[in-house]
Amino acid sequence: MVESAALAAREILTGLHAVMASRGSPQDKLDRVVDIIADAMESEVCSIYVLKEGHLELFATHGLNRDAVHKTRLEMGEGLVGTIAEQMLILNLEEASRHPQFAFRPETGEEHFHSFAGVPIVRRETPIGVLTVQHEDSRKYLDVEIEALQTVAMVLSELLASAGFADGTKGRARDTGPQQLAGLKLVTGMARGRAVFHQPKVTVEHTVAEDIEAERARVYSAFRKMREQIDNNIRDAEFGVGGEHHEILETYKMFAYDEGWSRRINEAIDSGLTAEAAIERVQQRTRARMQEIDDPLLKERMHDLEDLSNRLLRIVSGRVGTAASQGLQEDAILIARNLGPAELLDYDKRRLKGIILQEGSLTAHVTIVARAMGVPMVGKIEDIRHITAEGDEILLDGDHATVTVRPEARTRDDFDQRMETTQARRAEFAANVKKPAETTDGQKVELMVNAGLAEDADHLDAVGAEGIGLFRTEFQFLVAATLPGRESQYKLYKTVLGAAGDKPVVFRTIDIGGDKALPYLDEKDEAENPAMGWRALRLSLDRKALMKAQARALIEAAAGKHLKVMFPMVSEPWEYEEARALFEDQIDWLRGQKRFLPTVIEYGAMLEVPALAEMLDQLLPRLDFLSIGTNDLTQFLFAADRGDPRLADRYDWLSPAILRFLKRIIDQCNAAGTPVRICGEMGGRTLEAMALIGMGLRRFSITPAAMGPIKAMIRSLDAGQAAAQMDELLANPPRDMRRTLAGWAKQNGVILD
User: Fold this and answer.
1) Are 25 and 164 in contact (CB under 8 A)?
2) Cα 583–586–590 angle (5° rounding)?
3) Per-residue confidence at 1, pLDDT binned at 50, 70, 90?
4) Overall CATH class of domain 179-410
5) pTM of the model
6) pLDDT value at residue 622
7) Thinking of the domain 5-163, which architecture would CATH place it in?
8) Helix, strand, or coil (residue 511)
9) How high is the mean pLDDT of the chain?
10) Which position has the higher pLDDT, 297 or 483?
């Protein structure tokens, strides 16, 4: 074990630059590099694997059998090395052979070594190799040692690229002619414009600092400039009021001012890195963390940090380098691997007509902001940068998730006609926002919104909402550097209730744990499937002090008002009873202290765990209301991770299985006189919402952006006819429920988005 890993990191950097500046063949340099790393880290083994002709080939080693060099090869995804390269993750193992992906290669002589650490060597966001170290003794490597390896890998990527060793370092010819591509629907709408590349990435060229204090001063200056830019962008945002985008932008701002992030960059500078290299090293750790997270909300937090890192890199390096800084000269379709919400706000809204992402997701923060701006967006177009050249004409159809590059004249004319029709329909949707949500046969439907920040409560009237059906209290915990105290929670809840006025607010108690890990909580080791692990109400009941503080804050904030509390991920009635009893104990204590209490308190549960549906006869008599969280519920019913793109086609809310399941719940609640509401994304889609109304549901909590289309659907629907149709379809399910329902809606004049 080295006495000071930070000093070892600096020693490695200095040695690496001496090697790169010296004369000799690239192979000689790699052989010297592994010796330097092994000596500095007091490691018995250091090896470099390079991606060549589709295989990871052992190119240099200190400690393994040198006869294995250029002979040992692994496929992408094979063994520990292949896993690191394929998933671009870091492995730090006390006993390598216990890892499920371990693959023994006898020719290397590695059977004597137990501990293992490896990091990917990345070039322009693509893996081109792997750097590993091994020890005979079983031990975990220190975080600073892992960071040293990451820094070395940054330098190695340039060495491998300049030598032409690795795959992916050479260009390829671009396709020409018309091309139509299919992707993922992110933001609906149609747009036409010229291709513009965002180009957010800055390549770090110099890693070793000559003057640490000078580098620190550069970072401080860059932070000030970045924060000023973000403050100005958020202040000058021109797209309406209310909605989830306010939550996203305010959270993004919190990240920009996060002292923990700036402290980690300063620590990296202390190890001897330049400002650019320090930012990149912290960014790499963020990417590694993203690989370990399945929760969409936390993944988007990491995307925001990626965006902020790119922004900070451009400022500190003096390379503004994005299309936004140069200004859009004509109607543009922006092309990027991914975008952060603030980067999107840099662009001229008059010229930005659409966005195409190589990555992207429905829950991405940039998706929510683009939706608020009314900018159509399509994601998951992986080869778009190869197929398209700067200035190519592009037709973007966000409604059907298609992109046409260099269209023919006839295709362009057809597109223009459809775009004109679509724009007229969207104007109709917008006009419905302030109208009552009532079906043609007089059935009233309650439409509320999902929220997470106090600002959302200020704009309920603007979006035509009857209240907040789901206020995510965990957002305050996720963005905080330390556990929010009772006083800070009290202030938030009081502000929300004050802004909502007479409109109801349903507060969901904190849903953290599992993938929503908080660094300031000493959590237990998590299971392989965190979505089903120690989270939400399970965690709260285990950490009663946490829940008591939230209960006190909510009760005191709602003094003189109507308080609605909802417990997430209830699996069995006793969990609800225990949570409710905890709240009632706090009420009794406050009453004894002569405190002013809420006029009414209602308690509800979220049905996300299928097991709870079998116990509703026991639970409903004690419930004031029930909310169905369709996102988690559906993935649990189908055993299909909603974050896995390979299962996207199997995660269908209009499957007869989920519809029958929901129908039983809705019928049981209606028979018991217990209000039931849908809070998941399913309720914000017009076809799915039509089916739910046909099954007897009359309460929804949806995103603000869905309010117009959902109201238009409701106001064109005969609920009685829909009920008869749903009864028939659920009794004898058609082969394609989605197509059948869409056909029925068209035949009966129901307006769908």
Assistant:
1) no
2) 140
3) very low
4) mainly alpha
5) 0.54
6) 93
7) 2-Layer Sandwich (3.30)
8) coil
9) 82
10) 483
pLDDT digits (tens, 9 = 90+) for 169-179: 544 444 567 88
CATH (residue range 424-441+629-753): 3.20.20.60
> With the CA atoms of 527, 531, 537 and 540 taken in that order, what torsion angle do they form, in degrees rounded to the nearest 10?
50
Closest residue by Cα to residue 583 from 622, 611, 629, 528: 622
pLDDT tier for residue 275 given thresholds of 50, 70 and 90 = confident
CB atoms within 10 A of CB 635: 20
Is residue 145 within 8 A of residue 3, CB to CB? The reply is no
Phi, psi of 448 (to 5 degrees): -120, 175
Tell me the two tokens of residue 216: 């620190």
Q: How confident is the model at residue 54 (pLDDT cuts 50, 70, 90)?
A: confident
Tell me if domain 424-441+629-753 and domain 446-622 are identical in fold. yes
Q: Alpha-carbon torsion 580, 581, 584, 585, what sign?
A: negative
Q: Is 473 helix (H, G, I), strand (E, B) or coil?
A: coil
Q: What integer pLDDT is reported at residue 362 of this predicted model?
A: 67
Where exactly are the structural domains of the chain? 5-163, 179-410, 424-441+629-753, 446-622
Strand, helix or coil at 43? Answer: coil
Residue 318's CB is within 10 A of a number of other CB atoms, namely 10
Which CATH architecture is the domain 446-622 placed in?
Alpha-Beta Barrel (3.20)
- Whole-angstrom distance, CA of residue 626 vs CA of residue 668: 11
Of the pLDDT bands very low, low, confident and very high (cuts 50, 70, 90), residue 602 is very high
Give mean pLDDT, residues 653-671.
94
How far is the C-alpha of 277 from the C-alpha of 430, rounded, in Å? 48
Residue 582 has pLDDT above 50, yes or no: yes
Contacts 24+ apart (CB under 8 A), 286-294: 287/88, 288/88, 288/89, 288/90, 291/87, 291/88, 291/89, 292/89, 293/515, 294/515, 294/530, 294/531, 294/641, 294/643
Bigger pLDDT: 61 or 149? 61
**453, 500 contact by CB (below 8 A):** no
